[in-house]
Every structure is written in structure tokens, then in C-alpha cells.
Amino acid sequence: MTNEMHEEASNKSNNREFEDVVNSYMSRRTLLVGSLAGAALTFVGARIASASASNGSSAKSAPQVIAAKSPKIGFTSIPLQGSPMPTIAPEYSYSVLIPWREKLDGSGTSFDYAGFTAAQQEQSIGIGHDGMWYFGDDKKGLLCINHEYGTTSHIMGKSVPTSAADVALSQTAHGISVVAIENVGGKWKVAKSKKNRRVHVNTLATISGPVAKSALIQNAAGNPIQGTMNNCANGKTPWGTYLTCEENFNGYFGAKSSTWKPNAEQARYGIAAAGFGYDWHKFDARFDLSDANYANEANRFGYVVEIDPNKPGSQPIKRSALGRVKHEGAEVVEGKDGRIVVYMGDDERFDYVYKFVSKSNWKSMIKAGVSPLDEGTLYVAKFNDDGTGAWLELSPSNPALSTWTLDKILVYTRMAADVVGATKMDRPEWIAGSKTGEMYVTLTNNTQRGTVGKAAVDKANPTKVNTYGHIVRWKDASQYLGMTFTWDIFLLANQTFDEGGQMFGSPDGIWVDSDDRVFVQTDGEQPGKFNDQMLVANSKTKEIRRLFTGVAGSEVTGVTVTPDRKTMFVNLQHPGDGSPAISNFPAPYTGASGPVPRDCTIVITRKNGGIIGS
Ligand code: FEO
Ligand code: CA
Ligand code: CA
Ligand code: CA
Q1: Is 477 helix (H, G, I), strand (E, B) or coil?
Q2: Ligand nearest to the CA of 571
Q3: pLDDT band at 267 (very low <50, low <70, confident <90, very high)
Q4: Which atom of ligand 1 is nearest the CA belonging to 523?
Q5: In whole angstroms, what is the distance from residue 45 CA to residue 42 CA?
Q6: Which of 136, 182, 324, 373 is 20–30 Å from 455 (CA)?
Q7: Residue 169 CB–ligand 1 contact under 6 Å
Q8: 3-class SS string, 536-580
Q9: Mean pLDDT, residues 73-80 taken together
Q10: Spatial contact of 112 and 124, defined as CB atoms under 8 Å apart
Q11: 1 C-beta closer than 6 A to ligand 1
Q12: What is the DSSP string of 495-531?
């Protein structure tokens, strides 16, 4: 979703913000690595000023997060561009897969834009392609893909829905797709499969874990749990399921009554009478905040949702033990005793980074019939200025939360995190882990950092009015299970530049391959107002090259590969911002009279058949 859709910061608590932490930390680190800056950090003949080479001075040496390897990145970096078509490094090529409205029956055909209905949308690929994961071998498998966002204008060519049928179409375009794909003669296509399905806003679902029986999710209407929406980033489990994360759910609710006002809990989640303009509440009472029969409906969204791609009849399960926030990804790793750890960002200005640790070994839990995502402990991160950090427990066992019930903590997670003193960050988006345990979080931007009445800069969020964002990296003690960590700044986008100016902004999607290449995707303001892009960074030297640029008006998001890493799938979301005047992609550009652009997946291969990023 575009940056502009994010509302005013809703965190009014007094916790120190991440930016304040970063600035003090940065100044301490400068002497330490400043001498290396010009030599090691190169970008196609130009310099990159890394975070570690920035301002300030340092008295004692800080803990450092050291990347394990220095991976080879051998392709030719391409320039920023502003075209209605994508560009890719000359050693690479791309093709288009599963554009919005392509049928799930494997016929390779699509429903028409004109007269498109909810019933047709339910049988075809949704809009707003975002996070995804590929479960399969090098030639065929299942792609699980999130459909985060689509404006009414993009979907049906009008500014607001004017009927229940319009709202049903909008609702059905959101959610996820499970789609079988196969490589036939070098070309990836949709395969016919009983597993192909859509999950959308009206699909029957379950809420499991500590909130399952909570009064906070009951409605007077007695309506069942239904649907998932604004599915942003993602995760996958070691037991083969897909995790889809509900982000800006607040914007789909609105109030018909002009006297309705949000309570403190609703305000903390950005829930407001106007919503984002989807206007579902005008035709579907479930989304009307002023309808007393559905007073708690919004408490049923904001979760990490588990979907089994291999069981097409199974319901999506909202895993409440992971908390309720505007979830970005859910990066699952395994601790040395077999407990799983899930790292998660909450994308709002001045919101937090979380981790969940399962109660015991995941294999034993599954054997005992318990989901490892239903029993465990949730924590929130505190980044200290000295390059250390701590995980603060979010449960009634924490004295600061002794008067809270567990279900209240997990439904109003942001407020519990305010109480324990978590570090306010610059919009935590995706989190990705390297094989050796370094975790990377993209902090996309925060134009309110350090402004009047807002949290000041700190070492972990060091940029006042942080227009372009940054990436923080940490490593937990005891192979993910420790309650402390060390951290550093991997990159400051606003200090990363080439000859033409600043090189990237608004980092969002991120993935680290098993050779420690860091793939960074952007969503939002780019230097020079150029298109969003995908970069590949060396985790050790911080050298960056630009592999791919999207089309005007779109973001580049979602990243997954085949097991041999020779095919990569990424997404173009809202090409042309939905306007054919800006882009007709995937059709060649012919202007405003051309076809409405279609969100789609981009298949990337190296012309010599090599590993992507090499
Ligand atoms: Fe869905 Fe925060 O991007
Ligand atoms: Ca997005
Ligand atoms: Ca995003
Ligand atoms: Ca974003």
C-alpha cells in the first residue's frame, strides 16, 4: 500500500523513539569504522556512505553485528528510472505471471475489466499483490500470494462504491490466492489444481490461541469470524504452512452515524469514522463502527493468519498469541532447542518490533496436537543507545502488566507495549533473517521523527524528519532465544548515494539469501521521484547494486525463489497507481486510452541460468 495511506501516528505514549536511539548510537560508532568507509562501500563507481560511516565521535567500542559472508554480486547495476515499463539488469530477464483477474482454472485466460463481478473475482487472482511464498520444487509448486490493497478507482473505475455488489467486489479482490504454477518449456504458468483457491474478506475463518474465547472479539450480532484483509507481508512455517499478515485493517471500517467517536483503544489503532474511503460500512453493517451489533468486529483483524496451502478445504486461522497490531511480516526461525521464534514489525510511525517464542519444541507441540503458534510468549523490543537491546515480556507475568489479562494484552498489544517501554521505531516493515542469525528490519520512513511534540531521534532511529528510512540489524543471544541482543544500523537510505543523488528510499520488502545477499525492495518516495526498485546488498561490505526497477506509480514487493534460487518471484503492486494514464503494464504503454494496469507477479531469471543476485 502506498505510504500516503498511512494515517497520523497513533502512538501518543511517552516512550523514547527509535530515531533518538539511533542518533546517539550513530555518533558513538563513527570513529570505529569511519576509516573503512570510502574503501569498502562502492556502488557502480560511486560512494555509499553507510550508517557506520556517519557523523559523530565515539569513546568506547560498540557491540557490532558482523555478517558471516561477503557474497558475490556480479551483475551490472542499472540506473533509477521513471518509465511506465520495468527495467532489469542486462544479465537478467523477466516475464509476467498471474496478473489481477487471471482465472484460477489454468486456462491462461482472464475475466474482462468491464463488467467484472465479485463472483468472477472469487475465481481469479486478486489485486494488490504483496508478500508471498513459493512451496515447491524447481519446476512446479504452490504460490501463496497476498492481495493487500486496491482502490475502488483501480478495481471498478469509480471513486467510491455505490452498491452492495461494488463492496462485495472490493472485498473479494483483497485476501490471498493459493495458485499452482509450473514451468513449461521455460515459461511459468498457472496449472490446473484442486488446491487453487481464494481466501478473501468474507471467507469463514477461526481465531485461535488466548483470544479465542475473549469477550473482546464477541459481537451482539453473534456473527461468525470471517475473512482476512490488507494482507501485507508474510511468513512460512517449518511445518509447511503459509502466514499472511493483516496490516492496515483499520482503514476498511467507518461509521454511518455522524455522532460516533473512537474509544482510546480504537484510536491507538487508527480506527476512525471516515476510514480510508473504501466505504464498505455504507453497504455492509459488519464494517460500520456505529452499529452496536458489530461493536467488536475490528478486534477480529490485525492478526497473523495461518493458511495450509495443501488443504484447500481448511479455514484460515488467526493466531492471536502473536498479538494484534498492523502486522508486517512474520519471520519464523528455529531456536536450538526446537522452539520457534517469530519476528514481526508493526508498521506505524513510532510503533514497535515484536518477537514470539513458542512454549516448547515445535515438533513435540504438533505431536501433542497443539499449534506452536498458539502457546508461547510475546515480547517487544527495546533498543538501547549503546548498541544493546532487550526483549520485554508482554504478559501478566511482567509486573508492569500485572493488572492486564492475557487476552487484553493480545487484542490491545500496542497499548501493552506502550506500558512496558518499548522503543518507538520509524515504521517497522519487513524483517528477514540470515542463516547465521542476523535479523534485518526495514524502517521505511518517518517524517514526524523529531518534530514538535513527537519523539526525538535516538541511536536506532537517528534521522530527524526521516524521509527515506533505514535498515537496522540485530542478533539475539542464544540462537534467537535470548532476552538480549546487539544491534547496529545496516544502511541509512538518506546517506546512501550515487552520482545522481540519493539512491533509494522507503525500504520495505527484505529477504536474505543463504549466501547472505540482502534483497531490498522499496515502497514510497524515491530520490528524484523515480520508480520503486529492488536492490541487492552485500551484508558485509554494504555494496549495493540495483537489479530491477518497477513501473511508474507502483511499488516492488514480495520476494521468494525456487529451491535452486535460479527463479525469483517478485510483485508489482498498483502499477500506475491504477491509472492507465501513467502505466498500462503489463500491456505496453499506450496512454490513458490503453488498458487499466494490472497488479502482477514478475518472474526473474539470470540469462546464464545462475543464482539470482549473483
Ligand atoms: Fe503493507 Fe507497511 O506495507
Ligand atoms: Ca504495500
Ligand atoms: Ca509493504
Ligand atoms: Ca510500505
Answers
A1: coil
A2: 2
A3: very high
A4: 3
A5: 6
A6: 324
A7: no
A8: EEECCCCCEEEEEECCCCCEEEEEEECCCCCEEEEEEECHHHHCC
A9: 92
A10: no
A11: yes
A12: G-EETTEE----EEEEEE-TT-EEEEEE-S--GGG--
429 CB near ligand 1 (under 6 Å): yes
Q: State the Cα–Cα distance between residues 385 and 95, nearest whole angstrom.
A: 45
- Residue 180 CA, distance from chain mean position: 23
Instruction: Indicate the length of the chain as a whole number.
Output: 614
Closest ligand 1 atom to the C-alpha of 130?
A: 1
Q: Is the CB of 148 under 6 A from ligand 1?
A: yes
| DSSP designation for 192 | P
- The beta strand positions in 385-453, using DSSP E, are 388-393, 425-426, 428-433, 438-443
Asked whether the predicted pLDDT for residue 59 surpasses 60, the reply is no
Q: Where are the beta strands (DSSP E) in 120-226?
A: 129-136, 140-147, 175-184, 187-190, 197-199, 206-208
> Residue of the nearest CA to atom 1 in ligand 1?
232
Q: What is residue 525's predicted lDDT score, i.e. its pLDDT? A: 84
- Measured in Å, residue 524 CA sits from the centre of ligand 2 at 9
Q: How far, in Å, CA of 300 to CA of 211, rounded? A: 10
Residue type, 258: S
Calculate how far, in angstroms, residue 187's C-alpha sits from the geometric centre of ligand 1: 30
515 lines ligand 1 (CB under 6 A): no
Atom of ligand 1 nearest to the CA of 429: 2
For residue 328 and ligand 1, the question of a CB distance below 6 A is answered with yes
Start-to-end CA span in the chain (Å): 30
Dist CA 108 CA 574 (whole Å): 21
**Mean pLDDT of the 508-520 span:** 97
Atom number of ligand 1 nearest to Cα 347: 2
Query: What percent of the chain clears pLDDT 70, i.e. is strictly above it?
Result: 88
141 alpha carbon – ligand 2 mean position (Å): 25
CATH superfamily for domain 18-107+124-309+321-606:
TolB, C-terminal domain (2.120.10.30)
Give the 3-state secondary structure of 255-319: CCCCCCCCCHHHHHCCCCCCCCCCCHHHCCHHHECCCHHHCCHHHHCCCEEEECCCCCCCCCEEE
Closest CA to 434 of 510, 508, 344, 347: 510
pLDDT of the residue at 15 = 63
Q: Which atom of ligand 1 is nearest to the CA of 427?
A: 2
Of 248, 174, 303, which Cα lies nearest the Cα of 7?
248
